[in-house]
User: Fold this.
Amino acid sequence: MSIDIFRIIRWKPGPWGRAVLYVCTLAAVLGAIWVQYKLGQHYHIYMFFLLPVIIMSWYDGRKTGNLFSLLCVIGWLVVDLSIRHDNPFWAELFNNFVRLSVLLIVVLIASRLRIALDREHEMARQDTLTGLANRRAFYEMGEIEAERSRRYDRPFTALFFDLDNFKSVNDTKGHDEGDRLLKTVAEILHSRLRTTDICGRLGGDEFAVLLPETGEKAAAIFAAELRASLIEAMEKHGWPVTFSIGVATFHTTPDNLDQLIERADALMYLVKQGGKNAIRQEVY
Assistant:
């Protein structure tokens, strides 16, 4: 069984994971203090103090890293005072102040690197303009929900829509106005979705929504209310845009998420061919 090292690096512990992490890392620090005391003044195991600090800074942030840095230095000081009777107290205090300074720098670097990694990872999964999931993230999350739907034999609905006459907004009012329009669509989507729903921007003016555990009646209501909210926003801002929406509801979720998305996409194109600005729904 292969180990996904990148998934381990990006791991974000929940409440139980954080508790286990605290206990294990604290045990490692106390163990390092005890080993250092047993080894005496002729051996040094500084790396065993540094690793817990890096781990806690990486997985739980700068504050926790600082706390463990202080704990390590206190342990160091107690050991030094116990085994180095010939050194004056102020010298040991100075040495441990230097150690604390080094550890705090390590905490700062590790926590900043983790923040940068998380930001980069999020940006790679997010549409930069609208904040919605991009195609890659949309399909990743969709596969998880589709698998859950298949396992428990629940209905699953995909909704696919694009913006009629969107090009005319870009041509007549500029791309900045077009971007503002797309952001407005994304805000309306965010406001209407449940926490289990998934929405993404799959193309320039193409959007998709996945509605787990949603049958045809609930899907029809959702699509109608969404379209009404979108049309209201377009009229409010004076944008000559309407919406062609395809809704595909499956009582048995297909083995491939692409099939579900493609059916909703095909229904959307039928709306386009029939004059645009409508909803077409089918149940499979």
